[in-house]
TrEMBL record:
It comes from the Bacteria. PANTHER family: 3-OXOACYL-(ACYL-CARRIER-PROTEIN) REDUCTASE (PTHR42879), 3-OXOACYL-[ACYL-CARRIER-PROTEIN] REDUCTASE FABG (PTHR42879:SF2). This is NAD(P)-dependent dehydrogenase (Short-subunit alcohol dehydrogenase family). InterPro entries: NAD(P)-bd_dom_sf, Sc_DH/Rdtase_CS, SDR, SDR_fam. Pfam families: adh_short_C2 (PF13561). GO terms for biological process: monocarboxylic acid metabolic process.
Length: 257
């Protein structure tokens, strides 16, 4: 692929920062949605500057199509058409079918799924004109397996997985590839699914067969691979990045010291 122009929907997150660092090595320009307005990205922005490339930092509501489209068109004028959309936005809210309220449900769907649809529709329109592009959703193993403690998250990520397949089918006709990465537990996730209801994440680091957790750098490397010419025949795929966590079935078999 020629020069990357990478749009990251949550650049403040650990996954966003790792992706920035990985794409810097490929000489990328960046469009970064940052809730902190770039304050949380000072180290990464310095690296971009030192690389001689540009980073446009914005803080917009990704559920508003007009705002997203305006942002992408502005970026197109400044640094070029987005070549890679990385949708890594997520919110995990403790919830249960019995007690979750409508506001909580709506917030989870908006951040985790609706924003993915809006960004895909907007970026896809510009990518179609170039007959090229990649869209990568950082999804979750909980698109397939209930969390037991955050059901709205599971529902939203399940929707994203199907969005990817629908988008891969339609946008694929214009040379655009759309894939999902189903992430499992990664270093630093210890509080993410903390629950008094579900025991799924109790001793989670040992439920990975080799008892070695993945890192944000592992995720960034897979994001880069899916954006690169090395993956030109991968479209509409769900790639699991969990070290085998989802396969766990018996606690007595854990590789626990």
């Amino acid at each position: 692929m020629s020069t990357y122009v990478v749009f990251i929907t949550d650049s403040d997150s650990a996954s966003g920062k790792a992706a920035i660092r990985r794409f810097i090595a490929e000489g990328a320009h960046f469009l970064l949605n940052s809730e902190s307005g770039g304050a949380a990205l000072s180290a990464e922005l310095k690296l971009v500057e030192e690389s001689g490339k540009q980073a446009i930092v914005v803080n917009i509501d990704l559920c508003k199509h007009a705002d997203v489209m305006d942002m992408l068109q502005y970026a197109e004028q400044q640094i070029g058409t987005v070549t890679t959309l990385v949708h890594n936005s997520k919110v995990v809210l403790p919830s249960s079918i019995e007690y979750a309220d409508e506001e909580q449900f709506s917030q989870s769907i908006a951040v985790n799924a609706k924003s993915a649809f809006i960004c895909t529709q907007a970026a896809g329109k510009l990518m179609k004109e170039k007959q090229a592009g990649t869209i990568i959703y950082v999804s979750s193993i909980h698109a397939e397996k209930p969390t037991g403690s955050a059901f709205t998250y599971s529902i939203a990520k399940g929707a994203v997985n199907m969005l990817a397949k629908e988008a891969a089918l339609v946008l694929g006709r214009f040379g655009i590839r759309v894939n999902t990465i189903e992430t499992g537990p990664i270093e630093g996730d210890s509080q993410l699914f903390d629950s008094t209801i579900s025991t799924l994440y109790n001793d989670y680091e040992y439920k990975v067969p080799n008892a070695v957790l993945g890192t944000q750098e592992d995720l960034a490397e897979l994001i880069y691979f899916l954006s690169s010419d090395a993956s030109t025949y991968i479209n509409g795929a769900d790639i699991r990045l969990d070290g085998g966590f989802l396969l766990h079935y018996m606690n007595v078999k854990m590789k626990k010291p």
